[in-house]
Amino acid sequence: MSALSDFFSEKQLLSIRESNLSINIWEGSIRSGKTHASLWRFVDEASRGPNGDFAIVTRTYDSFERNILPELQKIMGNHVRYFRGKRQLYIKNRKCHVITADDASAEAKIRGCTLAGAYVDEVTIIPENVFIMLIGRLSIEGSKLFGTTNPDSPYHWFKLWMENNPDLIAFKFIMDDNPSMSQERKDFYKRQFKGLWYQRFIEGRWVQAEGAIYDFFDEKLHVIDFPLSTATSYVVGIDYGTTNPCAFVLVGINKHRYPNIWVEDEYYYNSRVTQRQKTDAEYAEDLKTFIENRGVTAIYLDPSAASFRAELIRAGVDNLVDAENDVIDGIRFVAKLLNQGTFKVCRKCRNLIAEFQSYVWDEKSLKSGIDKPKKENDHALDSLRYALYSHFFLSEQGGLTAKDLDRNFNQANGIQDDLPAFFQQPNQGHPLPRF
C-alpha cells in the first residue's frame, strides 16, 4: 500500500496522531480536509478504542446519509453496515447509534446512554444542551469525542466552551491545507463568498456578524433593467402580513440563459402607509392578478400564514408549498447566488432593492453569540428567501440545506469531494492506519 503521506497532508496526519484527548475538534474553512481526517481518526478509534457503543450525532438523518455515511464507506468499504430502520451503524463489530439533534428536545435521545466514543458533525449547529448531555454520557473509561465545525460567532457557546478547556484539543484547518485540491478549485470556492461568509468559510475565522447583511450588494452588479432572456418557468415567494407589509416576488428561471434566475416583479402592500388593512380575500385576489398568465409552477408561502393559505385554497390558487424558514441558511444561500453572478433583480423591484441595502444584523442577539437579522426591512427579502431557498435547495435538491452547498458544487463539477484516488474505490475496505 502507498505511504500515508500520499493520501494525507502533514496537518491531517498530525491531527490524527495527536487527537488523543477526551475531546478532539477539527475546525476551520470549508473543503479544508478536516472531515476526512476526523473520520479516519474516528474509524481508528472504533477499531481499537474501549469496549462499548459509539454514537454519531448530526443535525438530521439526511445529513448523515449524505455527508458521513459515504465517507465511512469509502474508508471501510463493506466493513461498514448501516441499518436505516434501527438508525444503527456497525464499523466492523462496533455498534454506532445515529442520533439527530435538530432542536433542543433531542437531548432526550441521549439521556440514559452509556457511550465509549462519539462523533459530532458540525458542532456549532448542534444545540448546546444536547452537546453537554453527550459529554456526560461518555462515561466509559478512555472514551473520546471527535467533532468538526466551521467557525461561527466568537460569542457562540461552543467557541466560549472550547477556550481554556484542558480536556480539549482543536486542530485548525484552512482551504490551503488541502493538498488534493488544485489552486483553480480553491479560487473557485473563494469567489463564491463575500464578507462575513468569506471570513468564516474561507479564512476559517470566528468573526462576529455585524452591520449590513448583504454588505456586498451593488446595484451596478446585481440590478438589471429587464431580463435578458425569457423565463421557462416562474416561482413566487410570499411573506404574508396584515399590520406588517405583505410582499410577493416573482422569480423567473431559465437555466440555459444569462441570468439563470431573476426577480422580475414584486408586490408590496404596507397597510401602515395606506392606513387601510386588506383582508385575506383581497390579498388572494391580488395574488391571482399578480401571477395571471405567468406560468407559475410553485408558490412558496410563509409557513406561519395558515389563514392566508386557507383563503388561497378557497380562491382556487394551487401549487402552494409551505416555505422552508431556516433563516441563516437561507440568507447564506441567497448571498451565494448573488456572488455567483447569475442571479439578478429587475430595477422595477424597488422595495426589494431597498431592503437589500438596509437589512442588518440584530446587535442584541450578536452579543449572545446568535446570528439573527433585525426584524426590520425584511418583508420582500423574506419572500425572496422563501422562493430561492425552498425551490432550489429543497424541492430540486432533495431536501438539502445550505450547509451542503460546497459538496454539491463539487459534485456538479465532477469532483468526488476532493478525496484522493485511494479513497474513491467503493466497496473496497482498506487497513486502518497505525500511527
Describe this structure in words.
The protein has helices at about 10-20, 35-50, 60-75, 105-110, 130-135, 155-160, 185-190, 195-200, 220, 270-275, 280-290, 305-315, 325-340, 350-355, 365, 380-395, 405-410, and strands spanning about 25-30, 55-60, 80-85, 90, 95-100, 115-120, 145-150, 170-175, 225, 235-240, 245-255, 260-270, 295-300, 320, 345. The chain is α/β, with parallel strands linked by helices and about 425 residues long. The longest helix is centred in the last third of the chain and has 17 residues, at about 380-395. The protein starts with 9 loop residues before the first helix and ends in a 23-residue tail after the last helix. It has 2 domains: about 5-200, Rossmann fold (3-Layer(aba) Sandwich); about 220-410, Nucleotidyltransferase, domain 5, CATH 3.30.420. Residues about 395-405 and about 410-435 have low confidence and may be disordered. The strands form 2 sheets. An 8-stranded mixed β-sheet has the order 3-4-5-2-6-7-1-8, with helices on one face. The protein has a 7-stranded mixed β-sheet with strand order 9-15-12-11-10-13-14.
Describe how the helices and strands are arranged.
Elements (H helix, E strand, L loop, with lengths): L9 H9 L4 E6 L5 H15 L5 E5 L2 H16 L3 E4 L4 E4 L2 E7 L6 H4 L6 E4 L7 H10 L6 E6 L7 H6 L5 E6 L9 H9 L3 H7 L17 H4 E2 L8 E7 L6 E8 L7 E9 L1 H4 L5 H12 L4 E6 L4 H9 L5 E3 L4 H14 L2 E4 L3 H7 L6 H4 L12 H17 L9 H8 L23
Parallel strand pairs: 1-7, 1-8, 2-5, 2-6, 6-7, 9-15, 10-13, 12-15, 13-14
Antiparallel strand pairs: 3-4, 4-5, 10-11, 11-12
